Automatic annotation (TrEMBL):
PROSITE patterns: HEXAPEP_TRANSFERASES. InterPro entries: Hexapep, Hexapep_transf_CS, LbH_SAT, Ser_AcTrfase_N_sf, Ser_O-AcTrfase, Serine_acetyltransferase, Trimer_LpxA-like_sf. This is Serine acetyltransferase. It comes from the Bacteria.
Amino acid sequence: MALLGRLLGGVREDLDAAVARDPATSSRLEMALASPGLHAVWTHRVSHAMWKAGARLPARLLSQAARAATGVEIHPGAQIGRRFFIDHGMGVVIGETAEVGDDVMLYHGVTLGGRSMEPVKRHPTLGDGVTVGAGAKILGDVLLGHGAQVGANAVVTKDVPSMAVATGIPAKVRRLDAAADPQATLYDDPAIWI
């Protein structure tokens, strides 16, 4: 019974986070039924549990079914935090050794990809509260600190400090005011948006 309560609490948490971040809906029901990003995240949570339990082939098959249904590819080995939201979803790729913190938001076309063919930590780590704009590519074992923001279509191959913005190809980093609210600063730089 406790497991069911935790699962339902997690679903509610994901729904509330999605509704809060998506001005196109204000309904949990609509979000639950019509958000491919949420469907991909929920399927990932199941496939990740299977992966950790050693059922790797079934986990991969489930993740591929989710990819076909949602257009979002999340490797079952990736570690995803709470209240993660993928807006629009289509074309998002998250690699096996990626680590995503709590309250992270990705837009469509984002890649959290590797830069090595070796079986090592080769995908990015995103801290809590990170926002990544449409089409951005975060490549390699890089760290995006708490509250970092990545602009649309940026290519990031180096660490981005907490409370900083990375835009361009290759991405250039500028720091945010430490006292600023990271969500409010999203409106300050049009390169962040889709």
